[in-house]
């Protein structure tokens, strides 16, 4: 690891830094067991699980290249009886140029050098998981989601990865909704549209689904960092930013509701003019 200082964005939710204690994890286990009709299945958000306090150490550091083995002898009773379904909005593998470190590291302030070091550490951690549980997460599709948390859950808890959009679409019966209703336009959104958007993000999922039923889509986003031409071939007809003047990220966040409302009005005025 490097001691290089990097500019890391502030935590979005400072109160949730991921310090689950054993008793809280027990509550999760009971929720899974008692809340799912005895099948032990549920969809759970995993990042805080991997950041849980270790009984012997202050933190679990999965990027430490000096890790030699995983000791799960003190695992919470009942955890092995649970079946975890992890909803992911990206398809990135655990390691490599499209993996967690190289793709998401820079978004959190990591330099190219640091991202390379992190990738080597995660590769080592994946080797340890393969040796311990005989699960290969190195190139597993979606294992790089949430900075590699998805891969850790698959390796250590035998979790299954699912497209987050597909899970939501299925629960809402979205195929039936789009096919049976008189819908002529879909307006979707994302914080930022970039090279990652087509790797399982909501915009990609909803535009592709809408395209199957001949419904065009318009995306309303905070920032535009590049749009793949393939998007326009799968039903996306235009992308608009909510910014109405030069502004900082904090200004945009503080005025999001108003900015979305005003830009949506302009979009609908333009769309209505086609008639």
UniProtKB/TrEMBL annotation:
<protein>
    <recommendedName>
        <fullName>Glycerate kinase</fullName>
    </recommendedName>
</protein>
<dbReference type="InterPro" id="IPR036129">
    <property type="entry name" value="Glycerate_kinase_sf"/>
</dbReference>
<dbReference type="InterPro" id="IPR018197">
    <property type="entry name" value="Glycerate_kinase_RE-like"/>
</dbReference>
<dbReference type="InterPro" id="IPR004381">
    <property type="entry name" value="Glycerate_kinase"/>
</dbReference>
<dbReference type="GO" id="GO:0031388">
    <property type="term" value="P:organic acid phosphorylation"/>
</dbReference>
<comment type="similarity">
    <text>Belongs to the glycerate kinase type-1 family.</text>
</comment>
<keyword id="KW-0418">Kinase</keyword>
<dbReference type="InterPro" id="IPR018193">
    <property type="entry name" value="Glyc_kinase_flavodox-like_fold"/>
</dbReference>
<dbReference type="Pfam" id="PF02595">
    <property type="entry name" value="Gly_kinase"/>
</dbReference>
<dbReference type="GO" id="GO:0008887">
    <property type="term" value="F:glycerate kinase activity"/>
</dbReference>
<keyword id="KW-0808">Transferase</keyword>
């Amino acid at each position: 690891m490097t001691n290089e200082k990097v500019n890391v964005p502030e935590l979005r939710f400072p109160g949730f830094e991921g310090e689950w204690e054993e008793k809280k994890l027990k509550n999760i286990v009971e929720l899974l067991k008692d809340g799912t009709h005895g099948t032990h299945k549920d969809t759970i958000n995993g990042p805080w699980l991997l950041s849980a306090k270790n009984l012997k150490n202050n933190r679990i550091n999965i990027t430490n290249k000096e890790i030699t083995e995983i000791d799960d002898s003190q695992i919470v009773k009942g955890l092995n009886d649970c079946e975890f379904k992890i909803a992911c909005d990206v398809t990135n593998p655990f390691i490599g140029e499209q993996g967690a470190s190289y793709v998401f590291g820079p978004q959190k302030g990591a330099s190219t050098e640091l991202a390379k070091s992190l990738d080597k550490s995660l590769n080592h951690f994946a080797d340890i998981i393969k040796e311990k549980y005989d699960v290969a997460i190195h190139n597993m599709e979606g294992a790089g989601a949430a900075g590699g948390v998805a891969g850790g859950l698959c390796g250590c808890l035998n979790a299954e990865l699912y497209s987050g959009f597909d899970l939501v679409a299925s629960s809402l019966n979205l195929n039936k909704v789009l096919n049976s209703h008189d819908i002529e336009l879909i307006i979707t959104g994302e914080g930022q549209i970039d090279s990652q958007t087509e790797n399982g993000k909501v915009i990609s999922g909803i535009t592709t689904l809408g395209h199957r039923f001949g419904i065009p889509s318009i995306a309303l986003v905070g920032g535009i960092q590049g749009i793949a031409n393939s998007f326009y071939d799968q039903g996306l007809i235009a992308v608009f930013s909510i910014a109405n003047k030069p502004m900082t990220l904090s200004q945009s966040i503080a005025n999001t509701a108003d900015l979305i409302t005003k830009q949506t009005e302009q979009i609908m005025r333009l769309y209505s003019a086609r008639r």
